[in-house]
Write a structure and sequence with these properties.
Layout: H1 9-29, E1 35-40, H2 44-59, E2 63-64, E3 73-78, H3 83-94, H4 97-102, E4 107-112, H5 118-127, E5 133-135, H6 143-153, E6 157-159, E7 180-184, E8 186-187, H7 198-202, E9 206-207, H8 210-222, E10 227-231, H9 248-256, E11 263-267, H10 276-284, E12 291-293, H11 301-306, H12 313-326, E13 331-338, H13 345-358, E14 362-367, H14 385-408, E15 414-422, E16 428-432, E17 438-442, E18 451-459, E19 463-468
Parallel strand pairs: 1-2, 1-3, 3-4, 4-5, 5-6, 7-10, 10-11, 12-13, 13-14, 17-19
Antiparallel strand pairs: 8-9, 15-16, 15-18, 16-17, 18-19
Helix pairs in contact: 1-6, 9-10, 10-12, 13-14
Bound molecules: S-adenosyl-L-homocysteine, iron/sulfur cluster and FE3-S4 cluster (F3S).
Iron/sulfur cluster (SF4) is lined by residues 189, 191-193, 196, 198-199, 233-234, 270.
Length: 469
């Protein structure tokens, strides 16, 4: 693949011109600075896109708000991964009808993975007439142009251009945090797991340039960011389709060399392209958190094959064995799907035994959700929802026991923790260990955004309590 997926300078300049035009329109129409409410659903990749949408809106003259009622523009950045995710968006958008009635000037916009799907865009067009603006994932950088059209014509602007995907560099970013930064390294996915909508709504795999990533990391580190999370649907395919030899392990090593006190995380790693080299790089780079999120989805080879995952149980477990060997303190987390079409209870038991073997710190567990347009959508699925619910409960009960045993082991040990904020319990602070375990302790608010050393005194299953040392 060549690199013609980068949005051209001309196009980016055109959008800058629209930014200026929107700003002028807003100045002429509003006495006070107009407010924009942006809400992002879904994964960190989408959150990162949301930060760019916010950056563009600020540049156009909007002030960001968390208050829906005071907004002149509402933008929902949506997720399509499961039916439940889409239902929530439909519900939340439906609820905006009243706001629009009270304020006909309000602009209601939708973007992200859901809107990239033709049938969804159509549904919003036909059944949600109060939605003025809709665009797909490949057109995000054109937000200034779309808004300008909305503001000037008063007409509905719907654009879900179909393309293989692109990369728009140097968009403004409004980072939600002052100490944790999301840095995408690649976009899209070529894997076509049979259950998954992502390749259809995010286009083909494409990697950012090595030097662009390094320069963004340098930039945020110099601004004082303490945690850098490298993002991609499959970070291990970084530069896989490019002429460059600089693959993901090389990128990790180069970022590790950047001077400063920060930790590096990454997600998600697909076992198919996960190599021993990556594990070596993790083990040898002192700034890389000893946490590996390696989704296995199922412990049964037949099901893995039907899912089109391109690895088997043995390969997955070899990687895990090697990773624990290189990093005995490693924390492993994963995603798993229960009730894939055709899965039998016996096959599901292979998932349980794999969980028992790996001893995950935590798991993201999902019941299979059919996604229109994917291969699994049409597969015969005879196990009832209730039965899948029972399997699901069996799995989560098992994981709860494993997590409790893992956190019990943390008692008395001291962890270096990035303090993320106040906990829900009064006076306590909350952070995460390198292994991604939530840790809460008494401390001064001034510690938020800094590293602290915390000794675990009272481990519970999903949260451990401690004290600073
Ligand atoms: N690219 C990542 C996963 C991204 S989606 C990877 O391949 O590891 C996050 C998780 O959502 C997946 O790992 C999977 O467990 C779950 N998921 C995706 N599609 C799903 C579906 N149709 N039904 C249920 N869970 C699904
Ligand atoms: Fe979806 Fe599979 Fe791609 Fe992950 S690797 S985003 S599960 S298709
Ligand atoms: Fe959802 Fe799109 Fe992410 S479908 S999980 S927001 S890539």
């Amino acid at each position: 693949m060549d690199k013609n997926y980068f949005i051209s300078q001309d196009e980016l300049l055109k959008q800058k011109e629209y930014t200026r035009l929107v700003k002028t329109v807003l100045l002429s129409r509003f006495c006070d600075t107009p407010k924009a409410f942006v809400h992002t659903y879904g994964c960190q990749g989408n959150v990162s896109d949301g930060e760019k949408l916010k950056g563009m809106l600020e540049e156009m003259g909007y002030e960001l708000t968390d208050d829906l009622n005071s907004a002149s523009l509402i933008l929902y950045n949506t997720c399509a991964i499961r039916e439940h995710a889409e239902d929530r968006v439909f519900g939340n958008v439906g609820a905006l009808k009243q706001l629009k009635k009270a304020n006909p000037e309000l602009i209601i916009g939708l973007c992200g993975c859901m809107t990239q799907q033709e049938h969804i865009a159509e549904k919003f067009y036909k059944s949600y007439p109060f939605v003025n603006l809709l665009f797909g994932t490949h057109a995000s950088h054109r937000l200034p142009e779309f808004l300008y059209r909305c503001l000037c014509t008063g007409k509905r602007v719907f654009d879900n251009t179909v393309c293989d995907g692109n990369i728009a560099e140097s968009l403004p970013v409004h980072r939600d945090s002052t100490f944790r930064a999301w840095i995408p390294i690649m976009y899209g996915c070529n894997n076509f797991c049979s259950y998954c909508i992502v390749p259809y709504v995010r286009g083909r795999e494409r990697s950012r340039k090595f030097e662009d990533i390094i320069s963004e990391v340098r930039d945020v580190v110099s601004q004082g960011y303490k945690e850098i999370t490298l993002l991609g649907q499959n970070v291990n395919s970084y530069n896989k389709n490019e002429a460059s030899e600089l693959r993901f392990p090389a990128l990790l090593r180069a970022i590790n060399e950047i001077e400063g006190d920060f930790i590096i995380r990454f997600m998600t790693s697909h076992p198919r392209d996960c190599t021993y080299e990556l594990i070596d790089a993790m083990a040898e780079c002192d700034k890389v958190a000893k946490h590996l999120h390696l989704p296995f989805q199922s412990g049964n080879d037949r099901v893995l094959k039907e899912m089109n995952r391109h690895y088997d149980r043995a390969k997955y477990l070899q990687l895990i064995d090697y990773a624990y060997e290189r990093m005995p303190e490693l924390s492993v987390t994963s995603d798993v799907i229960v009730g894939f079409p055709g899965e039998t209870y016996d096959e599901f038991k292979d998932t349980l035994s794999l969980i028992e073997y790996v001893k995950y710190t935590s798991l993201f567990t999902f019941i299979f959700s059919p996604r229109k347009g994917t291969k699994a959508f049409d597969m015969e699925d005879s196990v009832s929802r209730e039965e899948k619910g029972r399997w699901f409960k069996e799995l989560t009960d098992l994981q709860e026991k494993i997590a409790a045993a893992r956190t019990a082991d943390m008692k008395g040990k001291v962890y270096r923790v990035l303090v993320e904020g106040k906990s829900k319990t009064d006076g306590m602070l909350s952070g995460r260990t390198q292994g991604n375990v939530i840790i809460e302790f008494l401390g001064d608010e001034g510690l938020i955004g800094e590293f602290a050393h915390v000794k675990v005194t009272n481990p519970r299953t999903w949260v451990v309590y401690g004290e600073t040392v």
